[in-house]
Design brief:
Mean pLDDT: 96
Strand order of the largest sheet: 2-3-4-7-8-12
CATH architecture: Alpha-Beta Complex
Distance between the termini: 53 Å
Strand content: 15-25%
Number of domains: 1
Largest sheet: 6 strands, mixed
Low-confidence stretches: none
CATH topology: 2-enoyl-CoA Hydratase, Chain A, domain 1
Helix content: 25-40%
Number of strands: 12
Oligomer: single chain
CATH class: Alpha Beta
Order of helices and strands: HHEHEEHEHEEEHEEEEEH
Structural class: alpha/beta
CATH superfamily: 2-enoyl-CoA Hydratase, Chain A, domain 1
């Protein structure tokens, strides 16, 4: 945390807090790994409430990290987050996307899905059960939704290298681009991280109507580090900087255009999509 956390002052504060507690043996009362991990996470988040800070104890995941095996794992079930892709009545495309997998791993699934959806007259992206993932998939999907010129989606600042990186659409990635197709994004309070970036980008570029609940509020990407044995800490090493707002959604989430309980969001999106198609 001291070397890598996105805000140096908070990283040092977390380092000093944990080091002091270890020196005073304040963690000696914890008899099992799970409760100790939770105590560490709670203490780190007491300095700054960053939902990307997580501490776990998992031997299988720790071994994968040691082997630098960051593959999708068995839970991907071969879908890479593309849980359901279909065309609804009225030629409305619907994608239930449960995660943003790395496009390098998921292109064989993502490309046919987007090639199918882009032929519709409106698209609904259901991110109500999406906890995040890779900016590379955001770039890929977004490339279908804008025109023939690259669009600046997002910028990231990275603390370890003290550097910036930018994400732009690439029209060459898409079989077809439709900059005017109506887009609807469904959100819940579970919608997080990369799913929020996709939502935030489209909202501030005035490219989509957001429907549902305010999102979780995580704009500090990072990655796992093994701290001891099988204890893993997820360290937020960067922060998103939107090119339009010059800020991000950290800690506050993204407020939808139309606030509804998540259960009602799809019905509303279908209603709006049908109206938009009928008005053409």
């Amino acid at each position: 945390m001291n070397r890598n956390y996105v805000f140096p002052d908070k990283g040092k504060e977390m380092h000093d807090l944990i080091k002091g507690k270890l020196k005073r043996n304040e963690y000696s009362a914890y008899e099992d790994e799970a409760s100790f991990a939770q105590a560490l996470e709670d203490d780190l988040r007491s300095v700054i409430y960053d939902k990307h800070i997580r501490v776990t104890n998992n031997s299988q995941r720790a071994e994968a990290i040691r082997n630098r095996d960051f593959g999708p794992g068995p839970r991907s079930n071969g879908k890479f987050g593309f849980e359901e892709v279909k065309i609804l009545e009225g030629n409305i495309g619907y994608l239930d996307l449960r995660g943003f997998s790395d496009i390098g791993q998921a292109e064989d699934v993502a490309k046919p899905a987007m090639d199918k959806l882009i032929k519709s007259d409106a698209i609904i992206f259901d991110l109500r059960r999406n906890g995040g993932g890779s900016p590379s998939m955001i770039r890929f999907i977004s490339s279908y939704l804008f025109g023939d010129e690259p669009e600046h989606l997002n910028t990231f600042y990275w603390r370890p290298s003290d550097s910036y990186s930018e994400t732009w659409t690439d029209p060459k990635m898409a079989s077809q681009t439709k900059p005017n197709i109506p887009i609807y994004v469904l959100t819940s309070n579970y919608t997080f991280s990369a799913a929020e970036e996709f939502t935030y980008n489209l909202k501030n570029m005035e490219r989509a109507t957001i429907i549902g609940e305010t999102t979780g509020g995580g704009a500090h990407p990072g990655g796992p580090s093994i701290i001891h044995g099988d204890f893993i800490v997820n360290v937020p090493r960067g922060r998103a900087i939107n090119p339009i707002t010059k800020t991000n959604w950290e800690g506050v989430g993204i407020k939808p255009h139309i606030e509804l309980p998540k259960e009602d969001a799809l019905k509303k999106a279908l209603e709006l999509a049908r109206k938009a198609i009928a008005s053409k």
